[in-house]
Design a protein that fits this description.
Residues 4-240 form the ABC transporter domain. The protein has 279 residues and is an alpha/beta fold. The protein has helices spanning 42-49, 72-78, 94-99, 114-126, 142-155, 172-189, 200-206, 224-227, 230-237, 263-278, and strands at 4-13, 16-26, 31-35, 57-62, 65-66, 79-82, 160-164, 192-196, 209-214, 217-222, 241-245, 252-256.
């Protein structure tokens, strides 16, 4: 199982600091979800963990080594990332996309091996994409397309998987489909999975560990049932809410306050109107 941590990590763009002096260790073999307000640095932190963003200070440590000092191929054999809204070349088939996950294991003279073939077929089977392997990626539905990309990173055979908002632009059905798949894969292979999600309730349902980010630091982290409460949501998102429990899963469920329709208020108003007519 993969381990990933940050040591005094400072990130930013130009003179702007987004993450400041962050020390954090991701639980291995579990699903961790980053939450926080827009612009707080969730995706920036995830990109730095994949060595896509050079730190201003500090380091990311992957399986005991400073990731900045590791050879690119070695990093790619231990860690994979699915960026937000990835784009594939026009006309690329699902099979060819998934085969790209084997590139970290190929040298100049390396031929396609039985091990490569088995890894690709296993990835397609695990994501229920075998029947669609000859379809072009751009012909798939949103949920199918995400499953194809997840198959590619599974073929990469890494212990650590990073996903930046994997449910973006998906409808409710496909959001659940993708998150169910990731949860099942974690249970089967015990990969260390780190995701950025915007939906607190989905984060609570699927995460073993949640990291809430605010003011360039970790505001709080832990099991959803330990850290998700009205005070934390108010602090991190500037939003008042009530916290109840998901009736199906028993996980925390956030009910935000707002100005939408309130059926309870409508029912009370109707009752009063009826009572007034009687009198």
């Amino acid at each position: 199982m993969g381990t990933i941590a940050t040591n005094s990590l400072t990130l930013g763009y130009g003179d702007s600091v987004i993450i400041d002096d962050l020390n954090m260790e991701i639980p291995k073999g579990e699903i961790t979800v980053f939450i926080g307000a827009n612009g707080c640095g969730k995706s920036t932190l995830l990109r730095s963990m994949a060595r896509l963003l050079k730190p201003k200070q500090g380091s990311v440590v992957l399986n005991g080594e400073n990731i900045a000092k590791m050879p690119t191929k070695e990093v790619a054999q231990q860690l994979s990332i699915l960026p937000q809204s990835p784009i594939s070349p026009e006309g690329l088939t699902v099979l060819d996309l998934v085969k790209q996950g084997r590139h970290p294991y190929k040298g100049i003279f390396n031929r396609w091996s039985n091990e490569d073939e088995e890894a690709v077929l296993e990835a397609l089977d695990s994501t229920n994409m075998l029947d669609l392997k000859d379809r072009t990626v751009d012909s798939l539905s949103g949920g199918q397309r995400q499953r194809a990309w997840i198959a590619m990173i599974l073929a990469q055979k890494t212990d650590t998987i990073l996903l930046d908002e994997p449910t973006t632009y998906l409808d409710m059905t496909h959001q659940i489909e993708v998150l169910d798949l990731l949860f099942e894969l974690n249970e089967k292979y015990q990969n260390t999975i780190v995701m950025v999600l915007h939906d607190i309730n989905l984060a609570c349902r699927y995460a073993h560990h949640i990291v809430a980010i605010k003011d360039k630091q970790v505001h709080t982290q832990g099991r959803p049932e330990e850290i998700i409460n009205g005070g934390m949501v108010q602090d991190v998102f500037q939003m008042k809410c009530d916290i109840t429990y998901d009736p199906m899963f028993g996980t925390p469920m956030c009910i935000p306050h707002g100005r939408g329709r309130c059926l309870i208020k409508e029912a009370v108003a109707q009752s009063r109107m009826q009572a007034a007519k009687v009198h």
